[in-house]
């Protein structure tokens, strides 16, 4: 139990006490609470005065928690909405449907909110940001994308002069852990998932992670934050890592690459395209070395060039760190500006319009499947970069061509074939003669 002298309102200090409430006391909420207590002296120096946490909203108020006697624990949201002395509320509930009515009600009353809830921001962010502007308050969500990596703040603060032409990211630590485990140890998807759950990297119901929805939500947020609009999705739903064949991961290595679960945003002419899918990432690409539970975001700016942001994308204290940074920036008036509006995006597109005469470069893909040779015998719409690689009865080949060519080709192949788009310079693909020495 935290004692009152450590956690109370510090009323002996001369400056007015800043007050915040926390909604939700699971992994993120408790991490924020503990960080605010343990780092109190440093944080109060940063904001120039004291703060307190007078109320925490939980699902079950009868559960014993290590909280100060000066912090009220309630399961009634009205206890928060009725208070008139709160500076800000940290929202850390588990999903969008729980969080949405709380955040909406707070913003309507002009109370600023800091959230780590990516599903909430992805589904309702546009509405809630408009509501915040109308009521002269703010909605902050740095922690909703890539946990402890300060990607949103960095983009807005340090890359103001750049147009971000392309963003690619490994945005889900669970999927990255699973693919890394499978590749290194030859385990199945199911075995790797079980270990991720045992370590606490994956939930008991891991669908949002392994089916790509977590990365989908984060990509949507990035698109709004960078460009002010929702992206045009290339597929109806994201593609996850469930059922990725372990032999495909080994085949990818024979050509000098790794299969990674990648979210991408690309500005082209008058639109922003998005995709979430497993990709064949070559060793020359920035995301190649992002392993285990880490996240990585690679941005391509028109001035700065290539940058990689890498670090813990989830977890109790990395996520709490991002929430607390938003909180300190809010209290000190140093927060970054809100995302641009759709109108501002249209102006930006016009000022950075691309030459319609520019021909898109050919793209490359890794194809894996069974009996690829006979299926590809009479195909003339694509070119082959490699010979066929064989690993444990499964085959792989690297091809190049345009999007129309690969679409035509894919419709003619059997249902064992999987296509992985290539990230990196396809001229760096290992010749098969080198690859064969690596697999045996």
UniProtKB/TrEMBL annotation:
Pathway: Amino-acid biosynthesis; L-methionine biosynthesis via de novo pathway; L-homoserine from L-aspartate: step 3/3; Amino-acid biosynthesis; L-threonine biosynthesis; L-threonine from L-aspartate: step 3/5. Residues 150-328 form the Homoserine dehydrogenase catalytic domain. Coiled coil: none annotated. Keywords: Amino-acid biosynthesis, Methionine biosynthesis, Oxidoreductase, Sodium, Threonine biosynthesis. GO terms for molecular function: homoserine dehydrogenase activity; NADP binding. Pfam families: Homoserine_dh, NAD_binding_3. Belongs to the homoserine dehydrogenase family. NCBIfam families: PRK06349.1 (NF004976). This is Homoserine dehydrogenase. It comes from Salipaludibacillus neizhouensis.
């Amino acid at each position: 139990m935290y004692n009152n002298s450590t956690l109370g309102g510090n009323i002996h200090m001369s400056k007015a006490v800043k007050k915040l409430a926390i909604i939700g006391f699971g992994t993120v909420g408790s991490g924020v609470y503990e960080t605010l207590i343990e780092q109190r002296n440093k944080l109060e120096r940063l904001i120039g005065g004291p703060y307190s946490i007078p109320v925490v909203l939980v699902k079950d108020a009868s559960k014993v928690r290590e909280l100060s006697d000066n912090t009220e624990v309630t399961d009634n949201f009205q206890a928060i909405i009725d208070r008139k002395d709160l500076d800000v509320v940290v929202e850390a509930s588990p999903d969008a449907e729980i969080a949405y009515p709380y955040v909406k009600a707070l913003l309507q009353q002009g109370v600023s909110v800091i959230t780590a809830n990516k599903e909430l921001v992805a589904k309702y962010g546009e509405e809630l940001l408009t509501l915040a502007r109308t009521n002269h308050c703010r909605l902050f969500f740095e922690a909703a994308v890539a946990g402890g990596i300060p990607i949103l703040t960095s983009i807005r603060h340090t890359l103001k002069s750049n147009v971000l032409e392309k963003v690619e990211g490994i945005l889900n630590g669970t999927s990255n852990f699973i693919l890394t485990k499978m590749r290194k140890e030859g385990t199945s998807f199911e075995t790797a998932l079980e270990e991720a759950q045992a370590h606490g990297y994956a939930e008991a119901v891991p669908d949002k992670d392994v089916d790509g929805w977590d990365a989908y939500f984060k990509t949507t947020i990035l698109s709004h934050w960078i460009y002010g609009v929702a992206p045009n999705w290339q597929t109806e739903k994201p593609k996850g890592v469930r059922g990725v064949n372990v032999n495909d991961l080994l085949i990818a290595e024979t050509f000098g690459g790794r299969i990674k679960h990648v979210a991408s945003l690309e500005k082209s002419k008058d639109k922003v395209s998005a995709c979430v899918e497993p990709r064949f990432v070559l060793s020359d690409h920035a995301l190649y070395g992002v392993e285990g539970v880490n996240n990585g975001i690679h941005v391509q700016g028109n001035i700065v060039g290539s940058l990689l942001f890498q670090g813990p994308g989830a977890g109790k204290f990395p996520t709490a760190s991002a929430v607390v940074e938003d909180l300190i920036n809010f209290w000190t008036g140093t927060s970054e500006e809100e995302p641009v509006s759709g109108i501002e995006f249209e102006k930006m597109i016009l000022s950075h319009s691309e030459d319609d005469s520019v021909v898109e470069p050919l793209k490359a893909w890794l194809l894996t499947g069974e009996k690829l040779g006979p299926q590809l015998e009479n195909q003339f719409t694509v070119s082959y970069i490699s010979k066929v690689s064989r690993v444990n009865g499964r085959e792989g080949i690297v091809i190049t061509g345009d999007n129309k060519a690969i679409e035509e080709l894919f419709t003619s192949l059997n249902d064992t074939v999987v296509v992985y788009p290539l990230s990196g310079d396809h001229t760096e693909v290992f010749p098969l003669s080198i690859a064969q020495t690596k697999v045996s």
